[in-house]
Here is the input.
Amino acid sequence: GATQTLRQNGLTLALELTYSNTSPFDFFKAMSGQGTEAFPWKCTIDVRLVGYTSVKTSEAVYKQWPTDRVRIERSGIHFIVYQKGRLGRFDIGSLVLVFITGGGLMSAATRFVEILATTFGEQRYAHRASMVEDVSRKDV
Here is the structure.
């Protein structure tokens, strides 16, 4: 009832586990010895009381049938555990693909800017001259 304590009424606790191991890798921390034994992951636990719930049971135990009985009321703690978060894992293939793709895109962007600067810019002749170095056979 409303006048009973949590111990008399029983209670329900909600435990929320939030985890993540997708934090970015820090090369300098790894080289200095920090985070080498345990990968940088984090886990938080949030415990909340679920209101307006009752965890209670009642049982009649007969000492001498049918005249003498004892009513036993038990209350307890009900746990609701749920988890959420992100788990990631290292994949060397994906890493290599990202580096190769990034390098290719960087090369394409550089070439595109060079073409624009040497073809359409106001100072295209100066840009073109700075990109090409004339070398004579005597200098080689």
Strands lie at 11-20, 42-50, 56-64, 68-75, 77-86.
